[in-house]
Write a structure and sequence with these properties.
The protein is an alpha/beta fold. The longest helix is centred in the N-terminal third of the chain and has 16 residues. Bound molecules: adenosine-5'-diphosphate (ADP) and alpha-D-glucopyranose.
């Protein structure tokens, strides 16, 4: 099949700027598509970290007024990533988090900041850069949601549009009074357009008007058709079910590779895993001030601390395991209440529970390489990437049986153990009782080294690379173009 030109539109991009898995996906998918012969250029806001990282700039266009100030569009590169970057000081020249101000609240002008992203994407879609006319505009999450909307209400011809939902909990809802300021036509403010519960919905508009919708796992694609996971958008998603595709994310196998991971005390291949992992476990226990106990079941967590991730349940159940050889290495940040809970836990038993509340890439790798089991107790999880890294690193994933977690981990039930295919421990419903039972089951299996090693080997040989997902996306792009 012929190579396509794709404009990927995103508000975060690994390794330049990241708050979660969206950055990982937006950073890895273009490279996997390029390996298949497609040309992908990613449009990203010019946050300070982005402006510092880009090389080989070419000026594409100057905007006199991009939602409140002048702006310049650059074509540039960062490592292997091909980029368009919007330099707009009035929108993006701010330190820290791309979405939140120093007070922890959303930037008050997020509507304008991300409308600008969608607006420029639509302009590129309509040929702003004569050297890159995309066949497809692929938007990620609400922040890019207005790209397909502006294209829909603009002149024909236009490229085909796709929106990928990474997380339906974030929808980009703003006041109706912003309609004209966001340069949306009056006719966009309808049930068929951006109107959403009386306001403007960026993601809602994208779901209504994109040529197709993708989300990041087959199970999440089904879950969001119901009221609980659908979060207000399930009705619209049911209407569009024929255009909704569940495409499982991959894992960036270069960023997450135990054979070459510079953050590990000892790097390892499958054949020498047990010794190397024991050394990494000891190094992790040492680094975190945990008791240097090779027999303890060291449970790793790397996560945003939010309602979604279910870690409040872990706080609830740990009391039951006072007499068990269970240790915790938690790295996460977010909700201050959950954070305080873990801080108290660690203060009370620092040799058993270590909790770091930072964003720490090296420590995330050490936890994957040194913990025995890796916990993801999410209430919902569109895909989840940390369990994929855990599988690759030989940390046994203990996960809620939801979304992409259900699609990637094979529970060690009797059938799977007999067939020799188990890779982890799954639990459902997502309650404290089910989590406690899963942890008890994990302790039991940990006491059966032969079974445990088999599960590790199964997980480490599973292929969750980007190759297959990239082929799925490419097939979907071709389908849209020929429709
Ligand atoms: P989500 O996008 O919902 O946060 P994912 O599992 O898809 O969840 O992706 C989370 C990504 O962010 C992973 O790459 C994970 O390693 C990383 N991550 C999360 N919290 C931290 C942290 N405190 N420090 C370093 N990396 C983190
Ligand atoms: C979101 C989801 C997560 C997914 C990631 C990348 O942040 O919460 O499950 O893995 O996006 O698609």
């Amino acid at each position: 099949m012929a190579g396509l030109k794709i404009l990927s539109v995103t508000s975060e991009l690994f390794p330049l700027i990241k708050t979660g898995g969206l950055a990982d996906v937006a950073g890895a998918l273009p490279l996997a598509l390029a390996d298949l012969g497609h040309e992908v250029v990613t449009l990203i806001p010019g946050y300070p970290a982005v402006m510092e990282a880009i090389k080989g700039r070419r000026r594409v266009h100057d905007f006199d007024d991009l939602f409140g100030g002048p702006a310049r569009l650059w074509r540039a590169r960062a490592g292997a990533l091909e980029l368009f970057v919007i330099e707009a000081a009035h929108l993006y020249q701010r330190k820290g988090n791309p979405y939140l101000g120093p007070n922890g609240l959303d930037w008050p002008d997020n509507a304008q900041r991300f409308a600008a992203l969608g607006f420029v994407a639509a302009e590129i879609g309509r040929g702003l850069d004569a050297k890159f006319q995309p066949d497809i505009v692929h938007a990620h999450d609400w922040q890019a949601g207005l790209a397909p909307v502006y294209l829909h209400y603009g002149p024909e011809p236009r490229p085909k549009t796709l929106i990928t939902i990474h997380n339906l909990a974030f929808q980009g809802r703003f006041e109706a009074s912003l309609l004209a300021k966001l340069r949306l036509p009056v006719e966009a403010f309808t049930l068929q357009g951006v109107e959403y519960f009386g306001g403007i919905g960026f993601l809602k508009g994208a779901l209504a008007l994109s040529d197709a919708i993708a989300t990041v796992s087959p199970t999440y694609a089904l879950e969001i058709l119901g009221p609980e996971a659908g979060m207000g958008l399930d009705g619209l998603l049911r209407q569009r079910a024929g255009s909704l595709h569940g495409i499982l994310n991959g894992l960036d196998r270069e960023a997450w590779n135990p054979e070459a991971d510079v953050h590990l005390f000892t790097r390892y291949k499958r054949a020498i895993t047990a010794r190397a992992r024991a050394q990494n476990k000891l190094a992790l226990q040492q680094r975190l001030g945990l008791k240097l106990d090779p027999q303890a079941l060291l449970l790793g967590v790397v996560s945003r601390l939010s309602e979604q991730k279910g870690l409040d349940l872990l706080l609830d159940v740990l009391g039951e395991f006072a007499g068990s050889p269970l240790q915790l290495a938690l790295l996460g940040s977010g909700d201050p209440v959950i954070q305080q809970g873990f801080a108290r836990l660690a203060a009370a038993a620092p040799q058993r529970f270590a909790c770091s509340f930072a964003y720490d890439e090296p420590l995330a790798h050490m936890i994957q390489g040194g913990s025995d089991a890796f916990l993801v107790p999410s209430r919902f999880e569109p895909c989840g990437l940390t369990q994929l890294a855990a599988l690759r690193y030989g940390a046994i994933p203990v996960v809620a049986h939801v979304g992409g977690l259900a699609d990637t981990v094979i529970d060690a039930n009797a059938a799977a153990l007999q067939a020799g295919v188990a890779t982890g421990i799954c639990f459902y419903p997502v309650t404290r009782e089910a989590l406690a039972a899963a942890l008890r089951r994990t302790l039991t299996l940990f006491g059966e080294p032969k079974t445990w090693r088999k599960m590790q080997a199964n997980g480490m040989s599973a292929d969750f690379s980007w190759d297959q997902p990239a082929r799925h996306y490419a097939a979907l792009y071709h389908q849209l173009i020929s429709a």
